[in-house]
Write a structure and sequence with these properties.
Blueprint lengths: L4 E5 L4 H12 L3 E6 L2 H5 L6 E5 L5 H15 L4 E4 L14 H11 L1 H17 L2 E6 L12 H21 L4 E8 L6 H9 L9 H11 L9 H12 L6 E4 L1 H26 L2
Parallel strand pairs: 1-2, 1-4, 2-3, 4-5, 5-6, 6-7
């Protein structure tokens, strides 16, 4: 039986790292990619091969894909996971920072999809898993640019699914809610670099209140399991939101309508 080959971006920590390990434990040969070389090397094994790169570097991506094809001959699974969250109000986040949010979270995903699709078409099979966020379906104060990038990935994924389904390629969206990773700590450090006037300080406090539960949230392993389920099922789900409160939030947005849902969000964030 031919060994299945997977590619996981953003694999130096959190969801990407857990996903790479679980795929390797289940027989995949996994190429892991991220910028933090020392973190990648920590998970190197007989079934995990690190390739350090930046998802904004199109040439580095092309070289990585060439290496994978030349050594393994195929790509069965792409897990697009690399990204970050640019927190802050729409007004106060600079256009430069907003562009970079999309450069990583949207065009980073698109670069990898562009790179692997010709090979998946040629082999008439493959699965692309795009890790988005619950904020790809709803948007909250202070998450505007991050949510916009995740909405964009949701739209790209839905369009691509219709374009390649007949070619034997599946496209799956997995939308995590609050997961125990390094997300909050890293993004709050970034948030400190953005000036917010007094008028917006309640929004900033609301962000801290909303993300305070991250240490008690489910671990990234539940998302890794969802990825494994998606790539091993003959008919994978088109979209999967985890944990349960993510599904509840999407349902609440639909049931309550925009105005009432926005009121509930403000209450939750204490703004």
């Amino acid at each position: 039986m031919t060994q299945r080959i997977a590619l996981v971006t953003g694999a130096s920590s959190g969801i990407g790292r857990a996903t790479a390990r679980l795929l390797a434990e289940n027989g995949y040969y996994v190429f892991v990619m991220a910028r933090r070389v020392e973190r990648l090397e920590q998970i190197r094994s007989d079934h995990i091969e690190p390739i350090p790169l930046d998802v904004t570097d199109e040439q580095a991506i092309a070289l990585a894909i060439t290496h994978i094809i030349s050594t393994k001959g195929r790509i069965d699974v792409l897990v697009n996971n690399a990204g970050f969250g640019q927190l802050g109000t729409i007004e106060c986040v600079s256009m430069e920072a907003a562009h970079y949010q999309f450069e990583v979270n949207v065009f980073g995903y698109a670069r990898f999809m562009h790179a692997v699709l010709p090979y998946m078409r040629a082999q008439k099979s493959g699965c692309i898993v795009n890790i988005t966020s619950i904020l790809g379906r709803i948007a909250l104060p202070g998450f505007g640019w991050y949510a916009a990038s995740k909405h964009a990935v949701e739209a790209l994924s839905e369009s691509l699914r219709g374009e390649v389904k007949a070619l034997g390629i599946d496209v799956v969206v997995i939308a995590p809610g609050l997961i125990r990773t390094e997300f909050a700590a890293r993004q709050f450090e970034l948030l400190k670099t953005i000036f917010h006037p007094v008028a917006y300080q309640r929004i900033i406090a609301g962000l801290h209140h909303l993300l305070a539960g991250e240490p008690d949230a489910p671990g990234p392993e539940i998302i890794a399991q969802a990825v494994l389920d998606a790539v091993t099922k003959s008919i994978p789900p088109v979209r999967h939101a985890l944990p349960w409160d993510s599904k509840a939030a999407v349902m609440a947005r639909w049931l309550l309508g925009g105005r009432l849902f926005a009121w509930a969000v403000r209450r939750q964030m204490k703004i």
